[in-house]
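Late entry, written up from scratch paper. The run itself happened at the end of the previous shift, but nothing got recorded in the book at the time, so transcribing now.
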Amino acid sequence: MTIHSKLALAAGIAALVDVSAASAQQFNAPGQVEISGRTFHVAVCPGPAARGTARCFAHVVTDSRGNPLTSTVTRNATPSGYGPAQLRGAYGINPASGMPGTGATVAIVDAYGYPSAASDLATYRGQFGLGSCTTSNGCLTIVNENGGPNLPRSNTGWDQEQALDLDMVSTMCPNCKILLVQASSSSFADLAAAANYAGMHAHVVSNSYGGGENGSNTYEASYNHNGVAVTASTGDSGFGAQFPATSPHVIAVGGTTLHLTGSNTRQSETAWSGGGSGCSTLYNEPSWQLPSNANMTTNTLCTMRMEADVSADADPNTGVAVYGPANRRGSAWLVFGGTSVAAPLIGGIFGEKNNAVNFAQTIYTNSSSLFDVTSGTNGSCGGTYFCVAGPHYDGPTGLGTPNGDTAF
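Output as recorded:
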C-alpha cells in the first residue's frame, strides 16, 4: 500500500490521531470539507476573498468531519505525505550535487505573524536531513512588510500556510537562504508592500495567495522586479483567474495530481481539479506567452494574460508532509495540498538554479525541458484549453511540470 493509500485510510490507522473538535474550531474559520480521491481536506484560509484582499491557498488533510489529521513521528519513522526525496525525485532536482542555490535568497510573502516559524522549520529540516537554517546562523530572516523587526499578530490558518511555504522552499533548495516577509494583514495593500520589500532583497519571491482581479491595478507594480523570479499560486477553486497570478510580471503556478513509482520517480501526472487557471480581464498578454498549440483556434485563444505558466503537485490526495501549527496550542506533522504547495516548490527550484530571469520567459523558451501534462480538467470552459489539459500549453498546468531545472 502506498503512503497516500495509507493516508486515505487514515481514520483507521493508529499512527494518525484526529485533532479534537474543540481544537479544530481554532483553525481560522476554514471552509467546508472537500474531497479529492479518498482524501478529505479543508482550506485553511476562509474564502472567497473580499474585494481588495487575498486568501491563502493551502489545504490541510482532515477526517470526514474536517478535523485535521496529525501524526507524531518516532525515530526512524517517516511522516505521511511526500517528503523531499519524493518531490526531488519526481521532478529531477538534485540540490546535493555541487551545493546549488548557495548564495541565493528565496523570499516568502504571507500575511500575519508566525511565532513558531523558526522552531517548526528546524523540526522539518532536521527530520529530512536538510541542514540547519536558523535566524542565528543567518540562513533564516523574518521581518514585517517594511523589513522591520516588529512582527504582526498571529493567525493560525496563515501560520499553516507559512509552514508549508518554508518547508517546500527548503525541500527544493536546502542551500538557499530564506527571507520570510510577514504582511500586517491579508489586504492587497499590505501584501503588495511585503512583496515589494521581498523583491528588493531576494533572488526569488514566492506568493501562495490570491484574490479577484478587480482593483488590483494599484498593486501590480509591487510584483514587478527585473531579474527576480516571482512565483504566485493560481488558486484552489478551479477555473477562474486570480491576482497576483495574472500579473504579467509573475510566474503563475498551477496544480497537478502527482503519482510516484516505488523508486520515487514520476509515474503519472494530471491537472488537479482544484487548481486555478484563467484569462485575465485586466492585464495584457506578454509577448513571450502566446501559446503554440495546433489544437487552438483564433476564437478560443486568450488574447490577455493567461494563467498558469508552469505547475507542480497540489492535490491533497497526493499531498506533502509539513511540520506546522495543528492548532493554537502547538505544532505537529500534517499533510497539505493546494497550489500553495506548487508555488514555493517552483520558487525553490528557481533558487536552486539561481539565475536572473525575464519573468516567465525562460519557461516558454525551454518548454521542451518540462514534463507535458496532457490530461485532467479544472472546470467548465466549453472544452477549451482554458480549463482542459492537453498537449503543449493549457491553462491548468501551463507548459508542464519540472523535469530537472533547465527551464528555470
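Helices lie at 3-8, 21-24, 84-91, 117-127, 156-172, 188-201, 339-353, 361-365.
(Scratch paper discarded after transcription.)
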